[in-house]
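Subject: mismatched residue count in predicted assembly?

I count 708 residues in my input, but I want to confirm that the predicted structure covers every chain. Input:
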Amino acid sequence: MYPLKVLLSALLLSLPVMVLAAPSGDEIIEKVNAREDGLHVQRNFTVELTDRNGRTRTEKTLSYRRYFGDEKRTIIFYTEPTNVRGTGFLTFDYVDRGEDDDQWLYLPALRKIRRIPSSDRGDYFLGTDFTYEEIKKEQKVEPEDYHFVAQGTEQVDGRELLVVEGTPSDEAIAKELGVSKVVWRVDPEIWMSRKTDYYDRNGNHARTITLEGVDTIAGFITTTALHVLNHKTQHSTRITFHDTDYESAVPESLFTQARLRRGL
Amino acid sequence: MRRKKFTLLRWWLALGVAALPVGQAVAEEVAPRGFIKGRHATGIDGSEGQLSELLAELEFSGSLSPAASFKVIGRARYDALDYLEPGELEDQGDYRSGWNRRMSVSDNADVELREAYLDLYAGEWFFRLGKQQVVWGQADGLRVLDQVNPLSYREFILGDFDERRIPLWMVNAERPVGDVTVQLLWVLDQTYDELPTEGVFAFTASQFRPQLPDDVTSVTLTAVERPDGAFSDSNAGVRVTGFSGGWDWSLNALYAYRSSPVIYRERHGQGGYTLEPTYSRSTLVGGSASNAFGSWTLRTEMGLQSKLPVLVNDPADTDGIVETPEVRGVVGLDYQVDADTLLSGQLFVSTLVDAVADARRDRTTETASFLLRREFMNDTVQVEGLLLHSIDRGDGLAQLSAKYRFSDAINLRAGIDFFYGDEEGLYGQFDKLDRVSVSVEYGF
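Triage response: the counts match. Full output below for your records.
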């Protein structure tokens, strides 16, 4: 009996310590969202789109992002390949979820800027396997979209990651995002999810996003490579970021339709 | 005239040289780019080919300093059939200024400086100086405010719009003023629409020709009096653009020569007539607005042309022309069905402000367009159907095309263009020119 008593006592004594040590799902996501990403940034990124037959298309872009208060504006100029060169994309992302984002596309063949509908957050971004929401949030998560539950830890590539499961807050959000469940595996060293699984509204495993590269640039923890595999279509997208620069000036005047039309 | 051209050329060069920072004689970066496109079109009934063309564009662009950059685009074209513009290019002086002409290499080939401009940032000002395209408005294909650059109709309205628009030498200045952007244009280039007088797509409908009375005994067609005063005949425009309450809007004004001549008629003696193709000035004022609502995008555009010359049938009319203001407008609605599918419809209306008795055109004309575009196979295949239908005349053009992105550099395209309706209509006059076309484009 004595050893059992000792064991039970030890367990009871250690329980509050374990509870204090394991953050809740909300706390983990809060830390993910607290990660600083700079007032502005300029970077080049390469998008590799690979279909189920292994055929890959590669697109290269220059992009700039800047916060205007809480509002985030992004402008992207496509430089390669030749058939999309000169295409530009400008978006104003608003914090208020009730307000649709504003988006414009410059089409060099028409030499015109087209207003484009603000996409549903769950729509895929310009032919990639990333959704507009994922591109907009840049590895962060809208806390009001989900109920978060911590699910302990999981070893991924030798790292112990915090597992958080999120279920949509309500049916409308589930429909808008096109998910029934999301599982994040957050690295507490960088407060980014290294592997995220998305399940569609029928509960099927839909996509997996893998953080393939991360670096600290100018003090900011920065994604350098991100891969997503769509399990349904076997289509995948890899985005690699180059020349990320948080320090050079990114003028406010860059985020205008006039600049979108002129190009860089 | 020659002296004037030389002076203008020197002026442009001076602007270019002034933009070069001291000690920086060459561009920091010059990136040659371009494409080569082979295109063949033949009549649907298999009668004969319309064109068999090799088109090459070469573009150099680069940065001269952080505040200055340039772009130069040259184009060479070889058409083995030479049915669109038979023979060497002649009479370009009727519609192109001396410093904006294609250079004829042979009956089948010509070369052209397409664009050449310098971009300068100076404080809040942005200047684009040189030969360029400026596109106004929200409509696709149907022009209300998009009047700054003339168009080539050598292939009617077939072919890429970007390749049909004729760039002009101009000063284009922009600057933000508060929450809006103001654009000022000064167009020093008296170049107008390229309307083929012979060739496959020469206009044949009588609505575009003056009516001659029954007593006509002789007709003399005079040479076109193209305006050629670089300063006195220059065009000017201003556009203010803004974004407020979710709406993109613009206010536009353009004081310019109309881009195609109107043929005035003059009677002299007993049944003798002289026909005088004449370019006339008018002022266009208007505006545009667009917004997105869920998956829908609304595009609108309206313009008032101060003076539109209208051909009349009345044989007693002195010159066969009555001038009246004209209101044009277009409403477009786009529906993004899903990420791969776009549906778009437009309604274009033109109406004469004054009632014109015995006019060759209806007081109000209406044209509708419908577009369906869908992408397949990892966005490598794009299929598109476009219908342009003249509601008042009942004629139109239906186009079906498929584009295959064979690789990042190579595009293949096949298409059918089908004209139908009244032979006196804008589209119906080409009813017998239905065609199939194929093209291969290599970009670099």
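Residues 2-21 of chain A form the longest helix (20 residues). Marking this ticket as 'not a bug'.
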